[in-house]
Specification:
The complex is a heterotrimer of chains A (about 300), B (about 300) and C (about 625). With about 300 residues, chain A is mainly alpha-helical. Chain A contains eleven helices and no strands. Chain B has about 300 residues and is mostly helical. Chain B is built from twelve helices and no strands. In chain B, α1 runs antiparallel to α11, α6 crosses α7 and α7 runs antiparallel to α9. Chain B is globular. With about 625 residues, chain C is α/β, with parallel strands linked by helices. In chain C, α8 links the parallel β7 and β8. The longest helix of chain C has 18 residues. The N terminus of chain C is likely disordered. Classes of the chains: A mainly alpha (about 300), B mainly alpha (about 300), C alpha/beta (about 625). Chains in contact: A-B, A-C, B-C. Chains A and B meet through α5, α6, α9, α10 and α11 of A and α1, α5, α6, α9 and α10 of B.
Chain lengths: ~300, ~300, ~625
């Protein structure tokens, strides 16, 4: 038998699933555009307020309720109290994004662990864990958040984030459990056992990579949901409080003024919609990129 | 089929019980009581008030009393709105909220499913992008954005519909709220229907049905539609939760005197019976609607019935 | 014995179906794909045309194109005449009057080809009312009639059942009934038996032969297995890469083919033959008696509890009962049986991949159940397994190289990366795979290639026992032979013991020295291969052997005619006494009363049957 070793070693370079995914993602133009836009918005939210002469709560008595105009002092106009809308909106983006990312991270952590354990354990444990999730699911989530929000001082942002996470983990747990169950059936897991691969290795080398892709996609899709939740709450007066600005409470105020000063509604609304759109498109692109069998 | 229904109904009561218990515990844990913000109230009066409403009893006792009352359909008095019992408040607001929610779900289903089917049947690569964009937009427009926008366009500028508020017997006040609530749901459902139907149309059994010469219409309606609607029926569960919570926001946006504000305001006021009443009502409603959705799934997929 | 004569009408009348220069092309993003190129064929009434070729040869696409059932990006060109009516280019309404009414079609996998949410009765009556204009009551009666005609037992009850409640063979019969409902002139069957057990396959083929005779239908039988055609087809057409390579009377094609490709196909079909006399390719007889026992299984039993939901009463399923065997080192033992016979359960229980409910497994003197978990994992380097689903048994997120390297990572931790790479590329070469495949993912490989990767992964550590769980049943006939050859070669080179599980007796013949026959989880017969094939003792072994199609048109039709109708019983309620008695031609009252004991007339052989001495 000839020795192929010498020629072959060179060809066995290390390729990973991440580089493949990156390649596919690059080909997806919509997702790419969405990502660029997202980064742009995030950067603007971080940097621009520092560059502007106005703070988010500085009151400009001479320019109350000014409509947007690029030649005026306030590019996007002001609100009833004379606060610059551009700066407030960007602040809102900052706050909403930060809250959403924090809440998503926590909810993912809890949800993935819960779902994976339930799926792997199977049987009664799985039944009990998922019944728990089902019951919590039927509690109107807003109620839970409201209560949790009033449990501590109103307006505490950390509490808000935790409250959001407390609700979000349920769906994650369900999805991860379904994924894990499906994986358990796959023959390649049985093959790994038959090879004598120890359980922790099976988890790390076989289950996690196969689940990670889906979880990563879900992560990007849960962030916009969190932004939505938070906006709902702020809109109802239970989330971010004045004078802090979040996209939710900006829209609330804007809705009340919409007959006389429509820009107060349209500016934050447009930014919110744009943000959500980009996040969703990017998430969709990620999902397509991670599945090696995607046509 | 019947067995499935019975099993699900049987699990309703225990679940509701758990919901009631959890809520009871949570709201009691919140600091502050219902009478804290009363002005000019001396401690003795407050103590009397608490005794009147049985709030001085130990928690487990209060819990059991509440359960007993609940079993008789008595939600207790509202602690804040002293002239009313919780039942009366619910009776006043529930018809409106229920109408809002159910109309929204119905509207979403009636528009989304045919739209999804049409989109699947007229499937072209060029329209795919447009449809994806519209659907993405539908998901990205939250109800508290759509609501004011619709009100702005149809109420302020065009003057066709009232901007907000409610007049009994004047359904036109419900048009914008229902539309606002239904739109995101319809977007998601139509996208789901389209994708699902496209997949079903490619399956071997649909090809087999075509090979029997039954005609495309019959193949579509009798063979392809039911499996295609299965993901839609499964999605109804989360969709119902969305409608329930979304209605709270929509009622706030349009100033509708439904039960939504009871929940929010009641939590803030620590009006225990009111909040508990809302939890029970909303919880039961959600469970019931989920049950119907589950049954729909079972009807659509005979294989799942034996599971 | 002459082959079944074509009906006398055929020479005079126009053929039922005549295809002239038929081509099928698909528009893909990579350009146009020609699936079928200029095929000319015809089928007459009362005649069966067999269409054979490897997968991808275009056999199905050809007839899907004729009936307008291609995917959206496919087009058919040329001419396809049903009698005098041109089918290509027909408007939809006219085509719907042909489909189901004049041409009936039966597809490969009845589970996915029957609408899952409609009852059998609903699907039947629908066609009857559409094409026959019957009212509801008449349609129902006729539906029941049709079911009985295709030998579905308990026909009236079946009408109310859903497809998932029926067995595979029963579903296929229902499909055939539906195809016949419109009283068609032509019946096209696309790989109708490929997913069925060999005994059920024989029954379905016998049914086709009967239908051809009694109804004077034109019949098209598409398959990748030539032997399947030998008993039913009158003429055979061979397709490769979308072209018609050869066609002619079945006897000519099978015995004296002109084209080398056809001859190769015939050879492959006959290599699977079970009735041919012992050839040099047969596995050798057991070696000298002082061979050591490598794996000893004693009285192994596996039971499952099936619970229906939270409130349902649990039912007990006996997947395996009282199985005992001894595998010697260096020996190859085959385990055969139909689906539900417990073969896979036995394989996994023997390796302790699942826990047995009773009995013992001893490997190299150690009782496996007593070995602690960590040590068991270490033992696994000697106990390897290859699975049935080539693609499913490979982690889709790992490259071929990573898959093959994994056993080394686990058991040979002292090796560094480059040593591992060397071992991997050596193994790739050993199983006949090009080194360029090392960086591919499983979904980019063919079924045969995937299975070779599975073999490489199993062999890389040099195991002492290799269990093969139906390793080739998902593959094409030529690929099957290649993988079997690979296994035989590996075994010879390394002297490892082999447990080969298959429902296909013919494959087992090539590889194994002894064969164990299982039915419903119990042992029926254990014998050396040559003995089993030459003189099977157990009635079930005989049924199995008789069911294997032989690619000889002179013998096969008669063999088909002798096939008896019978469904396997449900494992949840096995028959009393001998579990095989409900299908046994030799059943006596005694067989219902007592479970037959396992008798061993000679060492290394055995049989469980009350009457075997009388019926031998």
């Amino acid at each position: 038998m000839r020795d192929f070793a010498a020629t072959s070693v060179a060809t066995i370079a290390r390729r990973g699933l991440w580089s493949d995914a990156r390649r596919r993602l690059r080909g997806n133009r919509a997702a790419g555009a969405a990502l660029v836009l997202l980064v742009a918005i995030a950067l603007a939210a971080l940097i621009a307020p520092a560059l502007s002469p106005w703070g988010y709560d500085s009151l400009d008595w001479q320019h109350l309720a000014q409509p947007p105009s690029l030649t005026a002092a306030h590019w996007l106009g002001t609100d009833r109290l004379g606060r610059d809308l551009l700066v407030r909106t960007l602040h809102g983006v900052r706050l909403s994004l930060a809250l959403a990312v924090l809440a998503s991270a926590v909810s993912l952590l809890i949800g993935v662990s819960w779902g994976a354990v339930a799926g792997l354990a199977g049987g009664r444990i799985d039944g009990a864990m998922m019944r728990f999730v089902d019951v919590l699911y039927s509690l109107p989530y807003l109620f839970v958040v409201i209560i949790l929000g009033t449990l501590f001082t109103r307006g505490s942002l950390i509490v808000l984030a935790l409250a959001l996470a407390a609700v979000g983990w349920l769906t994650t747990a369900r999805i991860v459990r379904t994924l894990t169950l499906a994986l358990k059936q796959r023959e390649f897991l049985e093959a790994a056992r038959a090879l004598g691969v120890p359980p922790h290795s099976i988890l790390l080398r076989h289950i996690v990579p196969n689940v990670l892709g889906h979880v990563a996609v879900y992560a990007t899709l849960i962030v916009p949901q969190m932004i939505l939740f938070e906006s709902f709450l702020s809109f109802l007066g239970l989330g971010v409080q004045e004078p802090q600005a979040s996209l939710g409470n900006l829209i609330f105020v804007g809705a009340q003024e919409m007959e006389s000063a429509p820009w107060m509604l349209l500016v934050p609304a447009a930014v919110l919609v744009l943000l959500l759109l980009c996040l969703n498109l990017f998430g969709d692109g990620l999902r397509d990129a991670f599945d090696p069998r995607e046509r | 089929m019947l067995k499935l229904a019975l099993r699900r109904v049987a699990s309703l009561i225990p679940t509701l019980l758990i919901i009631v218990t959890v809520s009871f515990v949570i709201i009691r844990l919140a600091p502050g009581g219902p009478f804290d913000e009363e002005q000019g109230v001396s401690p003795e009066v407050r103590a009397n008030l608490e005794r009147l409403y049985g709030l001085d009893q130990p928690l487990p006792v209060q819990y059991l009393r509440y359960l007993r009352a609940l079993a008789h359909g008595d939600f207790g008095p509202s602690l804040r709105q002293r002239d009313f019992t919780v039942s009366e408040l619910i009776e006043r607001g529930l018809p409106l909220s229920a109408a809002l929610g159910l109309c929204a779900i119905a509207l979403a289903l009636i528009t989304a499913i045919p739209a999804g089917i049409a989109a699947a049947l007229w499937h072209r690569p060029s329209t795919d992008l447009a449809i994806a964009a519209i659907a993405a937009l539908g998901v990205a427009l939250p109800s508290f954005v759509i609501g004011p926008l619709l009100a702005l366009v149809f109420g302020v500028h065009l003057g066709w519909l009232p901007v907000a508020g409610w007049q009994a017997g004047a359904p036109r006040y419900l048009v914008l709220p229902v539309l606002t609530l239904a739109l995101p749901l319809a977007a998601a459902l139509s996208r789901l229907t389209r994708a699902s139907l496209l997949e079903v149309l490619r399956t071997p059994f649909v090809r087999s049905a075509r090979a029997r010469g039954l005609g495309e219409a019959r193949v579509l309606l009798r063979h392809a539609l039911r499996p295609a609607l299965l993901p839609v029926a499964s999605y109804l569960g989360p969709a119902i939760a969305f409608v329930v919570t979304g209605s709270l926001v929509v009622e706030a946006v349009f100033g509708l005197p439904g039960t939504g504000r009871y929940l929010v305001q009641g939590a803030i006021d620590r009006d225990y019976p009111l909040v508990m009443g809302m939890v029970v009502v909303y919880g039961a409603l959600t469970l019931l609607l989920n049950l119907l959705a589950d049954l729909a799934c079972g009807w659509l997929d005979p294989g799942a019935r034996d599971a | 014995m002459p082959s079944i004569p074509a009906s006398a009408e055929t020479s005079a009348a126009t053929p039922v179906l005549s295809l002239t220069g038929l081509s099928v092309t698909f528009d893909t993003p990579q350009g146009q794909l020609r699936a079928v190129q200029e095929v000319t064929l015809s089928v007459s009434r009362g005649e069966c045309l067999g269409v054979v070729g490897e997968s991808g040869a275009g056999k199905s696409q050809l007839f899907l194109g004729v009936l307008g059932l291609l995917a959206a990006n496919g087009r058919a060109a040329g001419s396809a005449r049903l009698g005098t009516q041109e089918l290509l280019g027909l408007p939809a309404a006219a085509l719907d009057r042909v489909r189901g009414a004049k041409v009936g079609m039966v597809f490969q996998d009845p589970m996915t080809s029957l609408t899952p949410h409609l009852t059998v009765g609903a699907q039947l009556t629908e066609v009857l009312r559409r094409h026959g204009g019957l009212d509801r009551a008449a349609a129902r009666t006729r539906a029941q009639d049709l079911l009985e005609r295709v030998h579905v037992n308990d026909a009236e009850r079946r009408l109310a059942q859903y497809p998932h409640e029926l067995s595979g063979g029963m579903r296929q019969r229902v499909m055939i009934a539906i195809a016949l409902a419109g009283e068609p002139q032509l019946l096209i069957a696309d790989e109708p038996t490929t997913s069925l057990d060999v005994t059920i396959q024989a029954q379905i083929l016998a049914l086709f032969a009967e239908l051809k005779r009694t109804r004077a239908l034109g019949l098209v039988l598409i398959t990748h297995d030539l032997a399947v055609l030998a008993g039913v087809a009158d003429r055979v057409a061979v397709l490769q890469h979308g072209r018609l390579i050869e066609s002619g009377p079945v006897a000519t094609v099978l015995k004296a083919a002109r084209d080398p490709y056809t001859r190769a196909l015939v050879r492959d079909a006959q290599a699977g033959a079970a009735v041919a006399p012992a050839a040099p390719g047969d596995a050798a007889a057991p070696h000298a008696p002082e061979r050591t026992a490598a794996l000893t299984v004693s009285d192994l039993g596996v039971q499952y509890e099936i619970r229906r939901g939270w409130l349902g009463t649990p039912a007990r399923l006996d997947a395996l009962t009282a199985v005992s065997l001894t595998l010697h080192s260096g020996e190859a033992l085959g385990i055969v049986g139909e689906s539900g016979s417990g073969k896979s359960t036995l394989a996994r229980a023997a390796l302790r991949l699942l826990e047995a409910s009773s009995g013992r497994v001893v490997w190299m003197g150690r009782e496996l159940a007593a070995v602690p978990a960590r040590e068991l994992r270490g033992l696994r380097r000697d106990l390897q397994i290859i699975f049935q689903d080539p693609l499913g048994s490979l982690d889709p997120r790992m490259t071929v190289a990573e898959i093959i390297a994994e056993p080394l990572r686990v058991h040979e931790r002292s090796l560094d990366a480059s040593a591992r790479d060397r071992a991997v590329s050596a193994m790739l070469a050993r199983v006949g795979l090009s080194a360029s495949l090392a960086q591919r993912y499983p979904h980019e490989l063919s079924g045969g290639q995937c299975q070779r990767v599975g073999v490489a992964r199993a062999m890389v550590l040099g195991p002492r026992l290799l269990v093969c769980d139906e390793p080739v049943s998902a593959l094409d006939a030529p690929t099957q032979q290649q993988v079997i050859a690979l296994l035989a070669e590996l075994r010879e080179a390394s002297g490892l013991s082999l447990l080969f599980i298959s429902h296909n007796l013919a494959l087992v013949r090539r590889l194994c020295e002894r064969v164990l026959v299982l039915y419903l989880g119990r042992m029926m017969e254990l014998a050396p291969t040559a003995t089993l094939f030459a003189a099977p003792r157990h009635p079930y072994s005989r049924e199995l052997l008789a069911a294997i199609p032989v690619a000889d048109p002179q013998i096969q039709p008669a063999r088909l005619a002798r096939v008896r109708v019978g469904e396997p019983p449900s494992p949840l309620s096995p028959p009393s006494g001998c579990v095989y008695r409900t299908r046994c031609a030799q059943a006596a009252p005694l067989c219902a009363e007592r479970v037959p004991a396992w008798e061993e007339p000679q060492e290394g052989q055995g049989i469980a049957c009350h009457r075997w001495r009388e019926i031998s």
